[in-house]
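Problem: given the chain below (240 residues), write out its structure.
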Amino acid sequence: MNKAIFKQSNGMYAVNIVSACGVFTPEQFAGLGQAALECSVFRLKLTTRQTVVAVLNEEDLAKLEARLSALGLSVSPYGGTVRAVKACAGNTALCQRALGDALDLGIVMQEKYLGRELNKDVKIAVAGCSRGCTDPLCADFGVIARGRDSFDVYIGGRGSTRKPLHGQLLAEDLTGDEVCKLFEHVIDKYSKLAQPKERLASTVARVGLGEFIPPQGMFAPKQEQSDNEFLAFISGKEEA
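Solution.
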């Protein structure tokens, strides 16, 4: 796994810094600013992937990395890996339009999968409603909330290219746990079916979406889930 540290045209280096889907605590934000001062960072730049790029001289790289670790931050992985997850502010505490807790799910997925080694970079995007502020249809694995703990999943999207491509609907009305289970299924299939250095979008186009459809029985029938929720409610065990 490579680290996202790139030499710039001016001879300095850009370090791509990952937080929890773009969320910082005040202590982390203040600490990053202090670390930037101490490491003679030239500029800090927000990215479209909800990360922060620090531009600095080569001799200060190791010092900055050490400071990031102490703050609970890290350098983003890059090259044949699961990249930093994009998740909108979609949850009941932050966005009035949110249908489901996209931010919470995005953070969970990043904690579980960030840096997982794969055939090619895989990008995940999670949105709290169909407005899709995080461009889930242009991600390798795009998730869109449709209700409380209910998400639709699209795969094979591709952005940041001259030939952008929308993902295809793979599964509907999944819980957050089921989304993670489906992601495991998709990357397992991708690892087996992809040609060397082939992006997921190209693999889906070559072998067909059907190869990635989850097998019957992978997820519990929704009626069964509804019955369980009803039984929990009448027994007084439903969470507040």
